[in-house]
Amino acid sequence: MARPDVLELRDGDGAVVTTLSYMSAAGEAIAALSVVFDGPPSSEEYSGTMHSPPGVRHRWGGFVLDERLYDEQMRSDKELDYLVWPRFAIFFDAPAGNDIPMSSVQGIQAGDSWEFASAQPGFDSELFTCVGTPVDVLDISAPDGTAAQATVIVLESDEGSVRWVAAPEMVADGCA
Prior knowledge:
By secondary structure, this protein is mainly beta. The chain has one domain (6-170). Helices cover 12% and strands 37% of the residues. The chain is built from three helices and eleven strands. A hairpin with a 5-residue loop joins strand 9 and strand 10.
């Protein structure tokens, strides 16, 4: 289950087996997910832009772990080791992968109706992210004392359904 700060891996009864923090090393998450999805991902590098670092997308069917290659020296020098600069993010554009359900903690899955998603606790179309609508917000504090909000988000497709679920994404005042 996608949460604002971690990806929860659950057993068939819904009990949390382990959590993968978006701030932990991507390699650890890739190893765990390779066990979950019964094999290694396909991986594709991408270039950075003015707004995002370069990275590698690791895909297991409809599940993607986006490994972000931020400048680790800058992260250390500026004490930026919090969710604004996650080491990886996740998104999924299918309701299940390898027969494993994938959802937000509210149960929102890719393909659900927008009507269902918007009725879930935490859905907040008044908050702004650069890529979607928040459905689970967690207040976090940066080392400099400023506050930020990480979210699990969904994106509406033209057909009125949830196209994908992603985390973490930061609540923002605007996007460039």
